Amino acid sequence: MRIPLRVLLASPRGFCAGVERAIAIVEHAIEAHEAPVYVRHEIVHNARVVRDLEAQGAIFVEELHEVPDGAVTIFSAHGVPASVEAEAEKRGLPVYDATCPLVSKVHNHGIRFAREGRNIVLIGHAGHAEVEGTLGQIPAPVHLVATAEDVVALPLADDAPVAYLTQTTLSVDETRAVIAALQARFADCVGPDVADICYATQNRQTAVRDLAKRVDAIIVVGAANSSNSTRLAEIARSCGVPAWLVSDAQGFDPAWLNGTMRLGITAGASAPDVLVQELLARLGQTRDLSVSELDGIRENVSFSLPPALRRLSARSVRAG
Ligand code: SF4
Question: Which of 26, 27, 130, 218 fits a disulfide with 236 by CB distance 3.0 to 4.6 angstroms?
Fold first, then answer.
């Protein structure tokens, strides 16, 4: 006899407005210019998204020197250092910038703080593409910290003027603790509070906390290199619930669910819904599923395409 499994889906989960816009930019660029178009870095951190766009004619590269002269080039949602923008301009590459507007907002804050002569502290994870981009957009030295302990070790006088910025996809709670440590150490400390951790990150983290109260285990669908997906699994575990991050249904091991009667599922901001549907199909092969979705914050955020691409797309629709 098959054992029943109650599945609760977190809400919201999956794609955010920044990811939807980035994917739309690649698709519209292919339509307007014809394939191939070159994308610097994974457009968003998800292998399925990358594969689907490759099938449509996108070529993914890590560095600009891999882009042939004259080829249409797209910067990923994570943003790029100013040096990459300058190199593209020097080579005269036609560029569409898919940097999420919320990441650009962090860059703009940083540029303003640098102009004001403040010592800038970026709360984020070393090596992440967004952090690399932000570090490279600010025309001043930036101190990178990840924890409250890092704040204690900062080589700055306690009366130095400080401004902080945050990577958009951090854990809201951890970031609050780091900001509190900065404010406790530096009397003259300004920054945009956790509001710069984007709405999508906050909403998905709130939803996974709510989910954790109602289930025995949680599966997060998302890539291991996706910062916001990794945080979702960490938060679920910190709520005392076993949690696994899987990039797709193949990554799921049915043995994880021995003894589980209520399973929660969520997905990171760069994970397409088809991956959740495939996971449900796989679960349904061994258990009798009843699936429902929790009530959650409704999102109605959308970001428009870059104006140049909007104009071209409108023209090709009229011509077609
Ligand atoms: S997670 Fe937030 S900052 Fe990142 S792409 Fe999505 S909306 Fe933009």
Answer: 218
pLDDT digits (tens, 9 = 90+) for 248-264: 999 999 999 999 999 99
DSSP-H helix ranges across 165-272: 172-185, 199-212, 227-238
In percent, the amount of the chain with pLDDT more than 90 equals: 92
Which residue type occupies 177? A
pTM over 0.90: yes
Cis geometry, peptide bond prior to residue 68 (ω within 30 degrees of 0) = no
**Nearest Cα residue to 164 out of 195, 103, 112, 120:** 120
Burial of 318 (0-12, 13-18, 19+ CB in 10 A): exposed
DSSP state of 15: -
Ligand 1 centroid – CA 144 distance (Å): 20
Cα(53)–Cα(33) distance, integer angstroms: 15
Instruction: For 272-308, write each residue's pLDDT tens digit.
Output: 999 999 999 999 999 999 999 999 999 999 999 999 9
Give the model's pLDDT for residue 2: 86
Report whether 30 contacts 17 (CB < 8 A): no
Does the beta carbon of 26 sit less than 6 angstroms from any atom of ligand 1?
A: no
Tokens of 119: 């010592």
Cα angle, residue 215 at apex, residues 209 and 216 outer, rounded to 5°: 115
Query: Residue 11 in contact with residue 295, Cβ under 8 Å?
Result: yes
What tokens does 291 get? Answer: 């699936």
Distance 1 CA to ligand 1 centre (A): 44
In testing the pocket of ligand 1, which one of 19, 20, 228 has its CB within 8 Å of the most ligand atoms?
19
Phi, psi of 243 (to 5 degrees): -140, 145
Cβ–ligand 1 contact at 201 (below 6 Å)? yes
CA distances from 198 to 106, 192, 310 (A): 10, 12, 25
- Separation CA 10–CA 269 (nearest Å): 12
Closest residue by Cα to residue 92 from 59, 61, 67: 67
